[in-house]
Amino acid sequence: MSSIERESFVEFVTSSATRESVLCRVADAPATTQTLCGELDGSESGIYAATSQLEKKGLLRREGEEWSLTGLGLIVREVVTDRRKLDALLSSNSDYWRTHDVTALPKAFRSRLQALLGSDVVQVSDADPAGIVRLIRERLVESKRVAVAAPVHFPNLGQTLREVCAEYPGRLLITEAVVEEIRRHDGGEVPVPENLSIRVADVKFALAVTDDMSFLSLPTLDGEYDARTEIVADEDQSTEWALDLFEWSWRRATPIEEYPVPTRRI
Fold it and tell me: I want to staple 256 with a disulfide (CB 3.0 to 4.6 A). Which of 78, 198, 233, 235 is the partner?
């Protein structure tokens, strides 16, 4: 079978703006060809050709006078929609994505990056360098759910989590390097607040997830932690994505109690 014959369904749709528009419009509700011609940009002959091509490809089916999607068409439409969202996400903050290393995220979550659509890239100003840290702390204190991943040592994080976890339990993911830095500041031990679970993992991203907001920081392309920039999101799908990312990392991490370092409850 030639490469032309093996052309992907998604590429077939997205290689034509008219075919893509027809597929996405029919996904919203069945429609006649005349309805499509009245609602969509493009020539009437182009839309007639697109419906015929999509039907031949097995993506559209005709029920009476109306077109609707086949099961295959439904799948392709989902992929096309995700591509559109990803493109919108990358376009909205292209400078950030150009200079930061998305491979710090597990592959499964890179493929779902469009869930962050609607997020803001917040950069610390020279006039208020602690502004983003203060915002994260405020959100953590107000939240009943606390999940934090720290690839570097944050001097005040321990105190913040002790305050936050006084009422609700929390979870903290840290790297081996952070463990050693904590021990250096605490007499060789890792202090563990009573209501806080700690695990050790090789995470390369910083993450904080609260009840209704997430904060994500990726390293720059040279591998350096970026303390001045955060991806801040408050959409439901963004929070779900961030929590899934944390849970994925948490399941693969080692509980601090099983790690070969002395700990003490505080």
Answer: 198
Q: Are residues 159 and 59 in the same domain?
A: no
Q: How far apart are CA 207 and CA 214, in angstroms?
A: 7
- How many Cα atoms occupy the beta-carbon half-sphere of 161 within 13 Å? 26
Q: What is the DSSP string of 17-86?
A: HHHHHHHHHHHHS-EEHHHHHHHSSS-HHHHHHHHHHHHHTTSEEEETTEEEE-HHHHHHHHHHHHHHHH
Kindly state whether residues 117 and 51 are assigned to the same domain.
Answer: no
Is the CB of residue 54 less than 8 Å from the CB of residue 60? yes
> How confident is the model over 162-189, as pLDDT tens digits?
888 888 889 999 999 999 998 988 888 8
Do residues 13 and 133 both lie within one domain? Answer: no
Whether 87 is covered by a domain: the verdict is no
Six-digit token string for 48: 């007639």
**Per-residue pLDDT tens over the stretch 35-61:** 999 999 989 999 999 999 999 999 999
Query: The domain spanning residue 230 has which CATH number?
Result: 3.30.870.10
In this structure, what DSSP letter does residue 166 have? T
pTM of the model: 0.85
Amino acid letter for position 188: G
